[in-house]
Amino acid sequence: MITFIFTKGVTQNMNTFKRKALAAAVFAGLGVGSAQAVYQDPNGLGQGLIFPYYTVQSVDGTAFNTYVSVVNTTATGKVVKVRFREGKNSREVLDFNLYLSPNDVWTGAIVPADATDASPGRLVTADVSCTNPAIPATGVDFRNFQYSGTFDDAAGTTLARTREGYVEMLEMATVIGPSLVAITHAAATNVPTCTGVRGPGPNALPLADRAPPTGGLSGTGTLINVNNGSDSGYNAIALGNVTVADIYTDIGSEVGNFSQADPVSIVVTSSATGTRSYTSGWLAGIDAVSATMMHQNVINEYVLDAGTKSNTDWVMTFPTKRFYVTTAAAAAPFTNKFTATGSCESFGFQFFNREERGATAAGGDFSPLPPTLVAGLCWESTVLSIRSGQTHNPTGTSSGVLGSTNALAVNVTSGYQNGWANLSFTGANSLVGLVSQAGSFTLNIGTGAAAAGAQTFLGLPVTGFMARTFNNGTLTCAAASCQGNYGSLFTHNYIDNIQPRP
After folding, report:
1. What's the CA dihedral at 262, 47, 23, 451 to 10 degrees?
2. DSSP string covering 144-197, please?
C-alpha cells in the first residue's frame, strides 16, 4: 500500500481507496509495475535508516563517543545491512550484516581506538544479536581500504579520516524458516545460536529463509563526551517502502544499498501557497531516495553567548552525494567533481539576531576565513562552525562543539550573538535540481487541483542538525568534579521548492 506522508503543519488525511487508486494510476503511467514508493516517514519507522553523523573527534583534548541503536518494532525477523561511511567522500569504513529477531534491539558504540587523534574509530558492542561476521569482544577498528591504494581519492589516506562520518542501515530481507529460529534469542539464555547465518562465503542466508522486506525499523544516535559532560541525541531518518524486492547480499560487497530502491517517491510539502503531494517516477532508484531529502533552504538557530561560553555547529550531510559525484565528474543536483579539497557546493547564508536584525553573506564566502579553509560545503558531511570572534569561540580549522575537522567556519558579526539563519543552496546544478519522469503526478491537497507531468526538485538532498553548548560558571560545587557543561541538539528545518505548484 502506498502511504502519503504529511510533513509539519499538515493535519489532513486522504481516503485510503483514493490513495491506492491514485498510486495505481501513476504507477501504470510510469510503467513501474509492482514497485513501491519510497518516502520519509515522519513517525520514524522505515525500511532504511540514515544516521546523519557519528564522531570520535576531540574537543579541548576530550573525545566524543557515538552510540547507535536500531529497533525492530515488528513481529518478523530481519537481516539489515549496516554501513559506516567516513565524512569526506562517503567511502565505506566498515560494514556487516545484522540479524534482528522479532522486537529485537541492537546497540553499538563508536569510540576512538586509542587516545591519539590519529587513531581510527572503533566499533564496540555488548549486544548478542547475530552479526555476520561476529564482532569481537574487543571491537573492530574502522578501515581505510576504500580510500587508499588504488582507491585513493586525494583527500587523505590516514585512519584519522574514519573518526567522523555517518551511518546507513537498510533492511534487505525478512528472515523466515530455520534461520529465524537461529537468530531468535533463546528463552533460557537470551542468546541466539546464529546457526547458519554467519559465513564465511556467499549466500550465508539461504534463499528459502528469505522473504521481501517489510520495514518497521527505528534508530537513534547519541553523541556523548563524558569528560566535558555533554550528551545529545537524535532520531535516525527513516525511509519507508524503499523496495518491494528481497535485496539480500552477503558481506564483502557494496551491493545492498539505497541505489536498489524502487524508482518511485512520494513527497508531501507545505508552504504558504498550499500543501501538495508529489508522486514521482525516476530513471534510477537513488533519485527516488534523493527526492525525499531535496531541500532548497536549511533553517536552524545558533547561540554564541559570551556569558554561557556557547558555541554552535551545524551538521550538513548529503547521504546520496556519492552516487552523483566522482573524481571525474558531477551530475545534477551536485555541481563539482571530487578533488583533494572535496566537491564544494556554494551557498548563501542569511542570519538574524533575536531582535529581527538581519545580515547576508552569499556563496559561502565568509570573512574572515582561516587562510587554509576552502569556502563551500565540500564534504559528504560538512560541519558549519558558527563563530563571532569572541574569545570562547574556536579559532582553528576544527569546529567548536563537535571537534570536526571537516569543518567550515561561518563568521557572524557583532550584535548577532544569538538568533537563526537561513542557508540556501546556490550551486549551478542545485538550481537545475532533479527532474522526474513525464508520467509523474502532483496534487494540491487543499484545492484538489492536479497536474500530470515531469516535476523539478530544486536544491540538494541533505539532512543534519544543529548542536550547541552552554557553560554554567556560577555553580557552587562540593567536589572538584562538578560539571557545569551542557549540550543539546535540534534537527534542521527546511524550505522545499518543487515545481509545478497547481
Report:
1. -80
2. -GGGSGGG--SS--SGGGGGEEEEEEEEEEEE-HHHHHHHSPPTTTS----TTT
Q: Which three cell numbers stand for residue 179?
A: 534461520
> Number of helices (H) and strands (E), helices first, in the chain?
3, 35
The cell numbers describing 431, all together, are 538550481
Q: For residue 399, what is the DSSP state? A: -
- Prior bond to 333 cis, omega within 30? yes
Residue 117 CA to residue 106 CA, distance in Å, equals 28
- How many CA within 13 A on the CB side of residue 163? 27
Q: Say whether the peptide bond before residue 42 is cis (omega within 30 degrees of 0).
A: no
- Please state whether 356 falls in left (phi above 0), alpha (psi between -120 and 50) or beta: left
User: Could you tell me if 300 and 490 are in contact, meaning their C-beta atoms sit under 8 angstroms apart?
Assistant: yes
Task: Give the residue from 472, 493, 494 showing the smallest Cα distance to 483.
Answer: 472
How far apart CA 275 and CA 8 sit, in angstroms, is 10
Instruction: List, in sequence order, every residue forming a beta bridge with 99; answer none if it has no partner.
Output: 79
Cβ-based burial of 166 (10 A; exposed 0-12, middle 13-18, buried ≥19)? buried
For the record, the C-alpha cell of 105 comes out as: 534491539
Q: Measured between alpha carbons, how far is residue 324 from residues 8, 150, 310, 328, 376 in Å? A: 29, 20, 37, 11, 18
Looking at residue 13, what is its pLDDT?
40
Secondary structure element (H or E) that encloses residue 63, with its range: strand 62-63
Cβ contacts of residue 247 below 8 Å, gap of 6+? 170, 172, 173, 213, 255, 256, 260
Beta carbons of 256 and 231 less than 8 angstroms apart: no
Cα–Cα distance measured from residue 383 to residue 437, given in angstroms and rounded to the nearest whole number: 34
Which of 495, 487, 389, 494 has the alpha carbon at shortest distance from 64?
487
Q: Which residues of the chain have pLDDT under 70?
A: 1-35, 201-202, 354-375, 414-415, 472-484
CA 237 – CA 219 distance, rounded (Å): 8
pLDDT score, position 29: 56
Cell of 169: 542501515
| pLDDT at position 5 | 36
Q: What phi, psi does 303 have (nearest 5°)?
A: -135, 125
